[in-house]
Amino acid sequence: MYRVLVVDDEEPVLDSYVFMLNGCAGFTLAGKARSGFEALKLIHELEPDLVFMDINIPGLDGLEVIADVHKKFPAMIFVLSTAYERFDLAQRAIPLGVFDYLVKPVSKKTFLATMDTARAALQSREAAPAETETPLQRFMRRTIWKAIGEDEWAAIRADLALPSDRGNVCILESAEAEAVCARLAELVSYKRHCVYDAMLNRGMLLVSGDMSRGGLEELFGLALGELSPGGENVLGLGDPRRGPELYLSCAAALRNLEDRRGQRGFHNREADDDERGRFIQLRRKIGAADPAEMRKLFARIWSGVFAEADFTLARSKMASLIMFLMDDITGCYRNPDKAPLFNAVGEIMALKDIAAWERWSAAAFEKLLNEAALRRSGPLPLVKAIAYIREYYADPALQLGSAAEAALVSPAYLSRLFSDQLGTSFVDYLSAFRIEKSEKLIRESGLSIKETAFAVGYRDPNYFSKIFRKLRGLSPSEFAERVEKTG
């Protein structure tokens, strides 16, 4: 009997999956989990053969759980389930070897068909001789380090589904290489196809495409800043090469890694904590506090950074901070359609000494201050929260906590801002915005009511109809009929 773990934070979904599972020959329920941490615990304890994994669960999301365990349990089959289709989630799932992707509500017919294919896959894996390495591992650990022929490269590219004939190799040195590589690949995959492999304290990432060193710096800058603000992880960047010559990119990444390792120097944890606190303070206050106060805080930050580290490392730290600030104000690194105000990494890395930095940073920080002032139509955290709602309203997991995190304030403070500034609650504002978007979809898209509900962030079409009627005085179906009659 194959053992199945079902992970979902909604009891009706858990009950539905368990009920349908009872009709599947050869499968038995091993357990149920309602959060990411509970799922992680049960996977290690029960070692199920098949896991149905909801993506939007409390704590670690479903993909983070899979990223944590999929290499330890390579034969385990994971089937994702989510309330709506999103290409970015599918992108994140690809490097993790996810078996299938189901959109809830899942019909019994679809569920049974998925179980049939999963059964066949499990049987095939039992019959096949055990392999110590996956094709990706063989390529990243051995093949990529040597020159190969065109035919071999074509076969590898097809086998690994690499979208480009070219790529950049990056080598990571970290005490937690596997976890850090997984998270880096996840973040980078929002913009570029990225695969990775890790062993012991070293990991390798292959970014498909043709990127300059500066482009890679920018791509990985925010991700590494989020993962290791104190600089515990070191990443060497390789040059863009065609597949048969990726070994040259490996060599360049190794050289770059050695250079960066030498730049780290002595690490002062207390200074890092103080530095991080000032970074956070600046990010929270820019655009909301007095500009003169912000200039002083910024000058205090960069003077401390350059006093603590050598020029090259300090320059890199400040590039990360500037990118964070730019993203906080404009959202340019979360939304590929928004252009940055300026090329922070390229311009900073071109600076040769502290005097050049002081001149450049004064002008750049004024641009950031001015942009923050232009975008402010109320307290900046409220502005950021509203921008976050407008960008992620279609995510059923959107809550006050996630909006507060994006605005760099506490949920209680953000709730008070909605009440004091707008005279409404966060939930009511979000509901009103979603219903406004749903009206537009009903008028213009031709989607069904159920599809419309999913598209604006409601997992339950009945609940969507209830909210729609409450705010508009009629059901979505009645609204659609009215639209059709009036043309």
What's this model, at a glance?
With 487 residues, this protein is of the alpha/beta class. The chain contains 22 helices and 9 strands.
Verbal overview:
With 487 residues, this protein is of the alpha/beta class. It folds into 4 domains: 2-127, Response regulator (Rossmann fold, 3-Layer(aba) Sandwich), CATH 3.40.50; 135-264, Alpha-Beta Plaits (2-Layer Sandwich); 269-375, no CATH class; 380-486, Homeodomain-like (Arc Repressor Mutant, subunit A, Orthogonal Bundle). Helices cover 59% and strands 12% of the residues. It has a 5-stranded parallel beta sheet, with helices on both faces. The chain has a 4-stranded antiparallel beta sheet with strand order 7-8-6-9, sandwiched between helices. The radius of gyration is 25 Å and the shape is globular. The N and C termini lie far apart (57 Å).
List keywords for this structure.
Rossmann fold, Alpha-Beta Plaits, four-stranded antiparallel beta sheet, 9 strands, globular
CATH topology of the largest domain: Alpha-Beta Plaits
Please provide the count of β strands.
9
Structural class: alpha/beta
Strand order of the largest sheet: 2-1-3-4-5
Query: What count of helical segments does DSSP give?
Result: 22
Strand content: 5-15%
The biggest beta sheet is recorded as: 5 strands, parallel
What is the CATH class designation of the largest domain?
Alpha Beta
Identify the CATH architecture of the largest domain. Answer: 2-Layer Sandwich
- Name the shape in a single word: globular
Q: Helix amount, in percent?
A: 55-70%
Distance between the termini: 57 Å
The low-confidence runs, each spanning 5 or more residues with pLDDT under 50, are: 264-272
Radius of gyration: 25 Å
How many domains, as an integer?
A: 4
* Whole-number mean pLDDT: 81
